[in-house]
Amino acid sequence: GLPKRWRIVCWILRPRPPRTSCSSLSWPGASLLPYGAGAGDLEFVRRTVDFTSPLFRPATGFPLGSSLRDSLYFTDNGQIIFPESDYQIFSYPNPLPTGFTGWDPVALVAPFWDDADFSTGQGTIFYQEYKTLYGERRLPVLQTESWIRKITNNGGFKARWTLKVTWVNAHAYPAQWTLGSNTYQAILSTDGSRSYALFLYQSGGMQWDVAQRSGNLVLMGFSSGDGYFENSPLMSQPVWEKYRPDRFLNSSSGLRGLQFYRLHREERPNYRLECLQWLKSQPQWPSWGWNQVSCPCSWQQGRWDLRFQPVSIGLLGLGSRQLCSFTSWRGGVCCSYGPWGEFREGWHVQRPWQFAPELEPQNWCCLWNDKPYLCALYQQRRPRVGCATYRPPRPAWMFGDPHITTLDGVNYTFNGLGDFLLVGAQDGNSSFLLQGRTAQTGSAQATNFIAFAAQYRSGSLGPVTVQWLLEPHDGIHVLLDNQTVTFEPGHGDGGGQETVNATGVLLSRNGSVVSASFDGWAAVSVIALSDILHASASLPPEYQNRTEGLLGEGGAHLPLRLYGCHARYHHALCVTGQINGTGLLGKRNDQLPSNFTPVFYSQLQNSSWAEDVISSCNGDSSCIYDTLALRNASIGLHTRAVSKTYKQVNATLNQYPPSINGGHVVEAYKGQTTLIQYTSNAEDATFTLRDNWTDFKLFENGTLLWTPKSLEPFTLEILARSAKIGLASALQPRTVVCHCNAESQCLYNQTSRVGNSSLEMAGCKCDGGTFGRYCERSKDACEEPCFPSVRCIPGKGCEACPPHLTGDGRHCAALGSSLLCRNQSCPVNYCYNQGRCYISQTLGCQPTCTCPPAFTDSLCFLAGNNFSPTVHLEPPLRVIQLLLSEEENASMAEVNASVAYILGTLDMRAFLRNSQVNRIDSPAPASGSPIQHWMVISEFQYRPWGPVIDFLNNQLLAAVVEVFFYQVPRRREESRNHVVFQPISREDVWDVTALNVSTLKAYFKCNGYKGYDLVYSPQSGFTCVSPCSRGYCDHGGQCQHLPSGPRCSCVSFSIYTAWGEHCEHLSMKLDVFFGIFFGSLGGLLLLGVGVFVVLRFWNCSRTSFSYLLHSAEASP
C-alpha cells in the first residue's frame, strides 16, 4: 500500500477526487531539462503585459501539419506561434473558448495558453536553440531524442533542430493581484521530416488559482493552421485539473507532468536538409578541373564530337537528351539538349556513369525546394557548365587509297606501304599514339589501310591499346589490350548503338562504324567499305602544336603530302613516317613486295579511257584517283561518300547555333507590363517560347512582354532558331515577380521559388502598419481577440471590460486585491456532480461553482443543457479509394504528401492519412508520354460534432472530385510535394468503408445524468439532448433533470390539475367542481324565480286589459 503520508496529503488536497486517484501521485514527476544562464540559455523578458520573442528560422524549416514552416516565435502567454509572414506578430492573450478545432486561423503550439503578466518584475523566460544539423552532440538534445524514441517506439529519430523555452515563475494577469506562479517548459524538435513537441511541467510548480481566472480557461495542445490539431487530454477534465498539468500522468512514459505531441501530419522528405548536408560534405570550391570542360552548343555538334557519348538519364525531364564525356584526371561533364537540339544545361560528373550522386544534390538544392539561396550555394561548389568556351576537336581523316586530311587541314594522297605513325601527341596530363598499317590494293599500284592501333596514357591510367583489324566482307575485328571485344547494348539513346565500357576507353559500334573514345579526351572512328579501312581521329585543342606523324600539323612532312611516298622515291622522307621495329600492331604476317612503285595522279589522267570511268565522280579528285588507280568505280564512289561525310562532320563541329543576348533576370510587379529585348548574332534568328503562357508574349524579333497576373508556377524558356543552319539556342532566365501591396515594399533580392519552376516570388517589407504575406492587411486593434464577451470595434479596439472587471478590454480581471477573499473558504460538498467550488471576488467573496456543461443551476445539481458526446469507442474510419494520374514522374512519397495536402484542404477537415499508395503498372501510351497511374487508399475520421458525419457520408466523393479539379496552390512550396494530378471524375473515386448514422451511434456516449438522448442532425452531428428540452412534460409541466433522470413538476392551470409522469393527465379541481355545481344550482334557482315572476306578471297584465275592454263594450 501507499505510505501513510501519501494518503494524508491526498485527502487534504482532494477530499473527493473525481478522476486522479491517490495512487497516481506515486508516479515520478518529469524533470525539466536544465535551464537558465548556467545551462547556456538566453534570457528574454519584457516588463510589459504582452511581448513576443525574436523570430527563429530553422535552416531545414519546421514540419507542422502538412506544411514546412519557415519561422516561429514564443510569447509570454505560453505559446509558440508559426506566423504567415515576418510582420504578422501578435501575442494573442486570450485562449480559444472552444479549444483547437482544425479551423484555427493561427498555427501555434500551446504548452499553457493563458493570459500571463511579467510587467511587475516577477518571472522570466529562458530559451536555447540547438542546431545539430550535422550530427553535433548536445546533452539536452540527446535527452529529447531519448524521450521521443521511447514514446514513439522509433529508434531512428535524430534531431537536426531543437528549441527549448522555459517560462519561470510566470504570474497570471494581473500579476499584482493574483497568487501563485507557473514554471513549465516546451521543447520542439525535428529531424527535418518529423517533428514533435514535449511539454514539461515542474512538479508542484503550476500554482495558478483557477478561482481567479475570469476569462477563457487555459488551452493546451496545438493547431497546424491547415486542419491538423490535437487538444490536451486535460481539456476534457474539470477545470481545476486543467490548471494542474504537473499532476497529469503520461501513460507512454510513466511520468507525471509530461505531455507529448506529434506535430507533422505525414512524414515527407526534407530537401533543404538533404542539400545542407551535401553542401557540408563538399569543399567550398571544387578541387578538380571543373573550369576545363564545357558542353557542345548543340546536339548536332555533340553527336560528331566522339569525346561525348549519348546516354539516357531518367531523372531529367521529358524531351531531354543527354551527352556525357568522362576524363580520369579532370572528371566529366554531362550536357542536356532539347527537342531541337538546343543546349539547355550542363553539370559536372566526377565518376563515369554515376549520375544520381551528382543529379540528386542538384535536385535537392535547386529544383525540389523553394529556397534559391541553396541553389546559389550548390552552384558555388558545382559551377554551371555552359558552352561558351567549347572548342570542337580537331579532326583528321584517312580514306580511300589513302587520302589524308591533317589536323591543320592540309590534304594529300599517301601511298606508302608498311606501318606508319599517323599521329603522336602529348601534353602535361596525357599522351596519344595512332598507328596504321597499309597493304597493296590487289594488283594495283596503290595501297590502303588494313589495320589501325591507338594507345592512350594519362597520369592516372596505364596504357590502353585498341586495335582495328580488317576482316573479309568489310568486317572489323576489335582488340582491347590484345583481348577480343564483344559488344553489348549501350547505355541508351544511341540509336541501336552497342558499347563496351572499360577502364580508360569507351568502345561503341553503330552499324559498320567502330569508335573508341579514350578517357573522354581523344577519339578514333573506323569504318570498312570495299575491303578498305577508313578512319578519322579527333584530338583536343590542348594537343595543338604538339603533334607528329602523317596527320601532324605544321608542314613537317610537306613532301610526303605533295608527292606520296614509296620504297624507291623520296626514301629519306619515307623513313620519317615509317615505324622501325615492332609497333602497336605487332609484326606483319605478310611479305612486303620489294619493287612496289605507286602510280601518280598525273599518270592516271593521261589514260585514254579515263573520261568514261570518272564521269560519276563529279570532279572529286580523290574519287577520280581511286577509280583510275584501282579501275573500280564502286571504290571511287565509296571514297567520295566517305570524304563527303568527313567534310560534313567537320562543318557541323564548327557550326554554332544563334546566340541569345539579353537579361538573365527578369523582374516585374503584379499587373504591370515589363518589356525586355533579346537579340541574336544570327540575322535570320526567330524567337519563340517553348511553352506558351498567358502572362507572356514574345515577338519573333525578340521583344518579350510580361504582365504578371497570377502566381501559378511556370518555367520561362526562350528559343532562338536559325532556319538557315537548322540550329537553335535556349535561354531560361530567372523570373521574379512581386505581389506586395505596394511596389515600394518589394525585396527582389529575397525570393522564394514557386513550385518546381523558374518563377520566384519577391519578399515584402511591410510598412505603414501593414502585415501579411503580401502586406495586404492593415494592422487593426481587432486582429487579436478581445476578452470574452467584449466586443471589438474596427479601427478603435476593444470596448470596456464586463461589469465587476477592470482592464483595457483585451485584458480583464476582477476588481480589488486578491487578499480580499484570502480568509474565505468553500463549504464542504458545496458543489454537486464534480463541480468545482471557488471563492469569487466578483460576487463579494461568495462560494461559486464551476460546473460541467450539462448543468443549469449554480450548484451543479440540475442538468438540462445540451452538450457534445464523448467518443466511447473509436469508430472505424471512413475509407475511400482514388485512381489518380500524373505526368511528373513523382515518387511514392511525393504522391502521398501531395494527396494528403489536397485532401487536407477539403472544407471539412476530417482527413487522417493515406493508408496505401501504390503505382499501377500500365502499358505506355502510343505518344510515349510518361503518365503514371496511382491507387490511393485514403482514411477520414468520424467525429460526433458538427456536419462531419453528413459530409463524410453524403458529400465526400463529390468534394474529392472537385478538389482534384481545382487543385489549390500551396501557401508554401516544398519541392516535389505538390504533384499536379490530372482531373478525376466520379468513376475514379470509390467507397471502401462508410458507417451509417445508426451504426455510428453506438460509438458515442453521453457521460452525465441518466436520460440524455443522443440526437443526430446533419448540421450539428450528434448532440446529447435532455428530454427536458424536447417537450418531455405536457400541459406546461416544469422539467428538471435530476440524477435519476428527468422529472416533471406538474402545474395547475385554469380549472384543471395535470398529473402523471409526463403531466399527461388532466383532472378538474374539487373546489372548482363544487363551486361549479353549486353555482349551477343557484343559477337554476334564480332562473326559476325569474321565470315565475315573468309568468305571473304576464297573467296579471292580461286580466286587467280584458276588463277594460268589456266595460267599453257595455256602454254605448
UniProtKB/TrEMBL annotation:
User: Major place of localization?
Assistant: membrane
Alphabetical list of PROSITE patterns matching this protein: AMOP, EGF_3, NIDO, VWFD
- Sequence ranges assigned to domain AMOP in this UniProt record: 267-382
Q: What is this protein called?
A: Mucin 4, cell surface associated
**Which residue stretches, if any, does this entry annotate as coiled coil?**
none
Record-annotated VWFD domain positions: 394-585
Give the InterPro entries listed for this entry: AMOP_dom, C8-3_MUC4, EGF, Epithelial_Barrier/Signaling, NIDO_dom, VWF_type-D
One Gene Ontology biological process: cell-matrix adhesion
Q: Which residues cross the membrane?
A: 1072-1098
Domain NIDO: from-to ranges: 111-266
Taxonomic lineage is: Eukaryota, Metazoa, Chordata, Craniata, Vertebrata
Residue span(s) of domain EGF-like: 822-861, 1025-1064
Give the disulfide map: C851-C860
